[in-house]
Amino acid sequence: MTRPRRLAAGLAVVAAAAIIVVGPPAPAQPSSSHAAALLRAAADAATRHAYAGVLTVRWTDQGQTHQARTAVHLANGAVEVGTGDQRALSMDGQRWVGTPGSWTLVLGTGAAAASPPRPTANWNLQARVGPVVAGEATTVVVASDPGSGAVRARFYVDEATGLLLRREILDPDGRVEREVTFDRLVELGPVVPPLPPTTTRAAEPTPVGSMPSGYPAPRTLGHGYRLLGRYRLPDGTIQLYYGDGLFTLSLFEQKGTIDWGEVPPGQSEHIGGVDARLIATPTTSAVVWEARGIVTTCVSDAPSDQVLAAVRDLVDTGGSSSVGSDIAHFVLGPFGWN
Question: How many angstroms separate the first and last alpha carbons of the chain?
């Protein structure tokens, strides 16, 4: 396992298709169908438009709030974030870091996954009048927990274009854990998206039909997560990909032991007799632990308490999953570990 390195501010955001900040409350529209349609439109809009802009991202880590700004270029589904020699590229479900002509694959797979549940299967959605973001009027899609009624996420959509301009993730008490927003956004007109980085077939993750011995793959986890895909990475790491209709969650599994000195700093957790570490990044929460000879990293864009609930399911049922031989490369690399 190589030594994790410090966070680079220039790559604070890679999942730039997910965008965030807090808006004022407004009367809710009565139907969740409009809210769900806005989320579908936002996903489709990212594949049809070409924009350049500046993003601000804020996130909380162990009670401290951090902030970074970065440039973003979106062209017909390909999102390039960062400047100079600190850039990231997201396209076709994959994430790369580096520079044009010298990209390194750090997360994702080109292999098709099963369709996730509908957003309304696990969340109550409402559409509300939102604030002006980057000079555009927005409608806010508010996602709340059906059980507690607590609001856990807000998505700010420009209905004229369908573009997602802000995104915020909240903790159970309504405090913002992570938020990203477009400060400025300029339409570029028809442009050619970046050429996809070239890889040999041997370097690509491959679908797994049956799991190796000792690598469990539960069909469901936590708050409605459904198993959508199973993959083997080139170094032998197993990736399990889950979705609940609104958020995604990946498990990275590999046999081995953890040298905690090599793991990025974070919040210590003790789950079902297992020591774990919760690591906050600008756009995700990652939980690392070891059990029964399997090193596990769970990475998700969901609220951190729900990520921990999924981990608790795995630990309590005797399951385990892991990061891979290089936590920084496979998990934290897309969020600025260089």
Answer: 15
